[in-house]
Write a structure and sequence with these properties.
The chain is an all-alpha fold. The protein has one domain (about 15-115). It is built from 7 helices and no strands. It has helices at about 5, 15-35, 40-45, 50-55, 60-75, 80-85, 90-105.
Length: about 120
Amino acid sequence: MSNSEENIDLNDSQTTRGQDQERYNEVRYLTAASTPLPLHPFLAAFFPKGAFFKLFFTLELVQQLCNFTNEYMEATKHLRPSLAKNWNKLTPDEFHIFIGLLIYFSIVKLLRLELY
C-alpha cells in the first residue's frame, strides 16, 4: 500500500461543508447519469411499472402486512403513548411509498439523511 493510500481517512470528522457539497454534487451527477433508459414500447406493454414488484408483493400480501402493522400498533399502543396518539392506520399506498423509499435509499448513497 502506498503512502498516499495510508493517509486517506474516509471517516474524517473534520470534513467541511464545502467538501460535503462537492460530494453531494458528485453523487447527484452520478445518479442522474445512471438513470435507466426507457423501456422499449413493446416490452412496456407487457411489463408496466411496478409489475416485477407486484410478482412478489401482491395486493393481498400488502394489505395483510398493513393489517398486521395496524394490529401490532393497536396491541402495543400503551407502551408508546406519544407515538400512538399521532398514529394513522397504514394503507397499501403508504406501504408502497415506504418500500420505494427503502429501495431508493439503498441505490442512491448520500452522506446524510437530510440530503435525501
